[in-house]
């Protein structure tokens, strides 16, 4: 029974996350670079790598994308803490 409840929770969580990611991508398509720093950030020292930034509850998420002549590739991850380790 506990596994079933966990699976239900994960399914609902993933639905919310998927909806949030889609919404952010729609905003990016609609507003482009004018979306601003709260939503997007250019990765320094790169030619075409950008970061789509958003939060779900208290968690921060990042979707990296490369925009070259209308060809987008995405990589998603959850940020573990508020400070980047380099």
What does this structure look like?
- With 86 residues, the chain is α+β, with helices and mostly antiparallel strands.
- 35% of the residues lie in helices and 35% in strands.
- It contains one helix and four strands; from the N terminus they run H-E-E-E-E.
- It has one helix at residues 2-31, and strands at 40-42, 49-56, 59-68, 71-79.
- Strands 1-2-3-4 form a four-stranded antiparallel sheet, with helices on one face.
- Strand 2 and strand 3 form a beta hairpin.
- The longest helix is centred in the first third of the chain and has 30 residues, at 2-31.
- The protein is elongated.
- The protein starts with a helix and ends in a 7-residue tail after the last strand.
Write a compact overview of the structure shown.
The chain is of the alpha+beta class and 86 residues long.
Shape designation: elongated
Distance between the termini: 42 Å
Mean pLDDT: 76
- Uncertain segments are none
Order of helices and strands: HEEEE
Structural class: alpha+beta
Strand order of the largest sheet: 1-2-3-4
Can you count the beta strands?
4
Question: Topology of this structure?
Answer:
Blueprint: H1 2-31, E1 40-42, E2 49-56, E3 59-68, E4 71-79
Antiparallel strand pairs: 1-2, 2-3, 3-4
Short descriptors:
35% helix, 86 residues, four-stranded antiparallel β-sheet, 35% strand, alpha+beta
């Amino acid at each position: 029974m506990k596994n079933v409840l966990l699976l239900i929770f994960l399914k609902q969580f993933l639905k919310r996350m998927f909806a949030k990611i889609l919404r952010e991508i729609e905003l990016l398509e609609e507003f482009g670079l004018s979306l601003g720093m709260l939503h997007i950030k250019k990765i320094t020292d790169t030619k075409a790598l950008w970061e789509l930034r958003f939060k779900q509850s208290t968690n921060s998420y990042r979707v990296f994308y490369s925009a070259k002549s209308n060809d987008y590739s995405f990589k998603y991850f959850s940020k573990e803490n508020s400070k980047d380790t380099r």
